[in-house]
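Example (one chain per record):
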Amino acid sequence: MALYDVPAPAKINLFLHVTGRRADGYHLLETAFRFVGLYDTLSFDARPDGVIEREGSTLPGLAADDDLVIRAARALQKATGIRQGAQIRYTKQIPSGGGLGGGSSDAATTLIALNRLWGTGLDRKALMALALTLGADVPVFIYGRPAFASGIGEVFQPLDLPDRAYVVVQPPQSVATPGIFSSPDLTRNSDCVKITVFTEWQKTNAPENGFQGGGFFGRNDLEPVVYAQYPKVAAAAKWLEQEGVSARMSGSGACLFVEFVTQSQANMFGQRILGKIKHVHNSATVFQNAWACPGLLDHPLRYWTRN
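Predicted structure:
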């Protein structure tokens, strides 16, 4: 038995407010998650011997025991007592250290796919609880739809978002998340907002002239800290501003995104960036890559899991 070319989408944070810090060091957040059409892909072959092995595109120097995909598979084995194993192959397109949740998405797709392949039968709630043991961003990919999140990012309310498209740009720098959250310069007292305030803003603030020239809802509280510590990320944001668009950093960075009304508008702007990367030396030092992505209304595997 096998499952091939199973998608693991990236996420963006439409806003991210840090509202406090718990005694255990975890930060309290409010954010809006949206999945976008930039994917890693994974394939799974069941093994009768209980062994879990990986192959394909992994991060240089990443030991198997530290790989979220392997940890997710082993966590599902342990939680269910299943004796099967898996041969896992994956190809990464989502950049590491970009704030797009690539590793978390890969882990969630692994849980969802192996739950189906092994016939372990866990429902969404059980898979989300298992996902939380792997990382705070993993459960939203099991939740399976755009979400207003609070707590440490694991308490969800469903969001109905308008159709939008995005250009996601990758500066030539990766961001280490722990250093951003531990920074003494990070603001940790943002006011809480109501989900209704955010949803009403989404309805009444369509991007102007095709792109989000009028700005975004709220802010990303991590941006000033990242820009201060990672000058290449700050340079990418400044370049986009000079191009007349409003960009926001996703998560703890380094990737930034610009919102558009239609996919064709996003495609045109994405080609504009790629053209400058290819033909203008200075731009090549500002951006490493760019993708024009649809905003997804649901995770592509949402209905692989029963509620």
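Caption: Residues 20 and 28 are 5 Å apart (CA to CA).
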